[in-house]
Amino acid sequence: MWGYVETLLKFIAPGVMIPFAIVCVGLLLGVVIRAWKQAGKEQEEEDYEVKHY
Q: Can you give the residue ranges of every domain in the chain?
């Protein structure tokens, strides 16, 4: 796998790699933010039982 990555880094123009990397990071950030928001909603929706003694 690292041989493939090395080949890509040697032969693909930086003008192609940089926009592709920016798009990939944007997609990854979108997934992380969506998961973070979903986890926050699930924590807010948990029911807590309050007992008074």
A: 14-43
